[in-house]
Design a protein that fits this description.
With 105 residues, this protein is an all-alpha fold. It is 71% helix and 0% strand. Helix 1 (2-12) packs antiparallel against helix 2 (17-29), helix 3 (33-46) packs antiparallel against helix 4 and helix 5 (67-73) runs antiparallel to helix 6 (85-101).
Length: 105
């Protein structure tokens, strides 16, 4: 039901980042990583400062086993005192380790 509601929201308000974020989150919960990533990228095209979408995009890449792509998607980082800064830092540390373990530079 939530997925359909977010889809209707996107259809009615295609320039509303929150609608795309909701659609991405429902896809994420369903483990539809490509769909989630595309929705989060759309959010960031509409609002590059929407840090929740940037974080969720990185998490979707990570779930696919793409640590290096996930790490790249975290940038630019949120402002220093942003509420999500600790989550970004923790995820970036984990992704650096995963990316290095995969043999990437």
């Amino acid at each position: 039901a939530a997925r359909r509601a977010w889809q209707v929201a996107v259809e009615n308000w295609p320039d509303e980042p929150v609608a795309w974020l909701g659609l991405g989150n429902t896809a994420f919960r369903r483990e539809e990583w490509a769909t989630a990533r595309e929705a989060y990228r759309h959010v960031l095209r509409l609002d590059p400062q929407r840090q929740a979408a940037r974080l969720n995009l990185a998490l979707a890449y990570e779930k696919e086993g793409r640590a290096c792509a996930a790490l790249e998607s975290l940038y630019p980082e949120p402002p220093e005192h942003h509420p999500l800064s600790p989550a970004f830092e923790d995820l970036a540390d984990r992704l650096r380790d995963e990316c290095a373990a995969a043999g990437a530079t």
